[in-house]
Amino acid sequence: VQLQASGGGLVQAGGSLRLSCAASGRTFSGYTVGWFRQAPGKEREFVAAARWNGASIRYTDSVKGRFTIFGDNAENTVYLQMNSLKPEDTAVYYCAAKEGAETVPFDRLYNHWGQGTQVTVSS
Is there a contact between 102 and 32 (Cβ–Cβ < 8 Å)? Predict the structure, then answer.
């Protein structure tokens, strides 16, 4: 499966963005889809993940209550809705996919990656 991430941009603190991860080559059926981010000078970190059917959603603690991962099967796209953005959310965001149902937060277990999309939150 090939992944295409989009939707990043510049937003003020408190604002919202919606990132998209579109799949091509096949559908997301049978996959777990995750979002990761990497800030300058930091390691890539887990943000959120969900099974292809929307089950077993997992978030990192710092985004709980602010970010929502959800999918649109008709569009073969997974979204990351980001609300109440903070400057510390600034990073390059990546979507990734892995076969199987385990929504694990470890990037090494995801073997399909999209290109990153830059999110910048100004204070």
Answer: yes
Decide if 35 contacts 50 (C-beta within 8 A). Answer: no
Task: Flag whether pLDDT at 25 surpasses 90.
Answer: no
Distance CA 85, CA 114 (A): 22
pLDDT at 34: 97
| Whether the Cβ atoms of residue 80 and residue 69 lie closer than 8 Å to each other | yes
Alpha-carbon gap, residue 64 to 21, rounded angstroms: 20
C-alpha span between 101 and 49 (Å, rounded):
10
Residue 78's pLDDT band (boundaries 50, 70, 90)? very high
In sequence order, which residues have a C-beta less than 8 Å from that of residue 70 and are 6 or more positions away?
50, 54, 78, 79, 81
Give the residues across from 81 on adjacent strands.
18, 68
